[in-house]
Design brief:
The chain is 36% helix and 16% strand. It has a 7-stranded mixed sheet, sandwiched between helices. Strands 11-12-14 form a 3-stranded antiparallel sheet. Helix 1 packs across helix 7 and helix 3 packs across helix 4. It is α/β, with parallel strands linked by helices and 365 residues long. Bound molecules: 4'-deoxy-4'-aminopyridoxal-5'-phosphate. 4'-deoxy-4'-aminopyridoxal-5'-phosphate binds next to helix 3.
């Protein structure tokens, strides 16, 4: 197959086509370098320029304050589930808001290193909602408060500006893996955010961490050098060999966001528009499609819903695939349908899915 399909994979996920094309065109020889980005030293001038530009672009797009450092790491968001408590817990307790499978994993991991309290847990309503963060009381002396801005499996997301509602003095730490760069964030309100690149930002193998340097400075001693934020800051992500190709692709993605999309406000508008197309189809289906998330917690990135029975869900996925709409099966732990519509999914792809949904409902309702 050489035609591109509409790929609704939850991650690794569809990439901006111009980014893929440029990476292809430059794969054998980077302009001005004469060697592939795959072949050059991570300590070369050429790669340094790539790291510098990528960081500068991220700083511009996200308006990252000078207090915060940007790290390009490996190990996925899953390693951050461990590095955050290893570095930041000390002898205090952390507080976790649990909105789905990923936050659950984050708490479980933190408990290997110390105390992690669950302040709010959405298990009672099957993880269909997010709390009003302004209504929760966090302990000022907590090591940190941890939230997951978007739950990739359940498809629930905190609304834009949620960081402004968190009260108290404990630093806010956020797993932003599946909505990173999808809308502006007020970074000065976060002690740290982290995200695996493979949804909105680039290839798998790269994890972006943005953290307040003051927070990193207070990290515990005695943990492995490579897992200390301090070390990684000191070496500007070059303590050991970083995932060089993935950083290069992230650079191209940040250029695309700036030059073709026009920044994160514009990206957020597009993402709202795309998500509305699918939620409208769900709401207009007279109960044929049942959305998982409550309306106020609906994710703009991962739209999840059910059909009247599993047989129909299978037929839906199969018929969609035959029309070039792929990777719509829900996560194996929850079933149903999931359409991941990250930044790089064009509105045309979402329209094609919408048309398919309307037709399928008309044929089977
Ligand atoms: N957190 C969230 C919200 C995720 O979606 C994922 C990956 N699907 C992870 C953490 C784990 O990320 P990784 O596979 O990069 O370790």
């Amino acid at each position: 197959m050489s035609e591109r399909v509409w790929n609704f994979s939850a991650g690794p996920a569809t990439m901006p086509l111009p980014v893929l094309e440029q990476a292809r065109d430059e794969l054998v020889a980077l302009p001005g370098v004469g060697a592939s980005v795959l072949e050059i030293s991570h300590r070369s001038r050429a790669f340094e320029a790539i790291v510098d530009e990528t960081e500068a672009n991220l700083r511009d797009l996200l308006e990252i304050p000078p207090t915060h450092r940007v790290l390009f790491l490996q190990g996925g968001a899953s390693l951050q589930f461990a590095m955050v408590p290893m570095n930041l817990l000390g002898d205090r307790a952390a507080q976790y808001v649990v909105t789905g499978s990923w936050s659950k994993k984050a708490v479980a991991e933190a408990r290997h290193f110390g105390a992690a309290d669950v302040v709010w847990d959405g298990a009672g309503d099957d993880y269909t909602s997010v709390p009003d963060l302004g209504g929760l009381s966090f302990d000022d002396s907590a090591a940190y408060v941890h939230v997951t801005s978007n739950e990739t499996i359940g498809g629930v997301e905190f609304p834009a500006g949620f960081e402004g509602h968190v009260r108290g003095r404990a630093p806010l730490v956020c797993d932003a893996s599946s909505d990173f760069l999808s809308r502006p964030l007020e970074l000065s309100r976060f002690g740290a955010i982290y995200a695996g690149a493979q949804k909105n930002a680039g290839p798998a193998g790269l994890t972006i961490v943005v953290l307040d340097e003051a927070l990193a400075a207070r990290a515990a001693d005695g943990i492995a050098t490579i897992l200390e934020y301090r070390t990684l800051i000191e070496h500007r992500s070059l303590y050991n060999t970083p995932p060089t190709f993935a950083v290069y692709v992230l650079m191209l993605v940040t250029r695309w966001l700036r030059d073709e999309i026009g920044g994160l406000d514009k990206m957020a508008e597009r993402n709202e528009e795309k998500a509305a197309l699918l939620y409208d189809a769900i709401d207009a289906s007279d109960g044929f499609y049942r959305g998982h998330a409550r309306p106020e917690a609906r994710s703009r990135m991962n739209v999840t819903w059910r059909l009247p029975d599993e047989g129909l869900e299978e037929t839906f996925v199969d018929q969609a695939r035959a029309e070039g709409l792929v990777e719509l099966k829900g996560h194996r732990s929850v079933g149903g349908i999931r359409a991941s519509i990250y930044n790089a999914m064009p509105v045309e792809g979402v329209r094609a899915l919408r048309t398919f949904m309307d037709g399928f409902a008309a044929r089977h309702a």
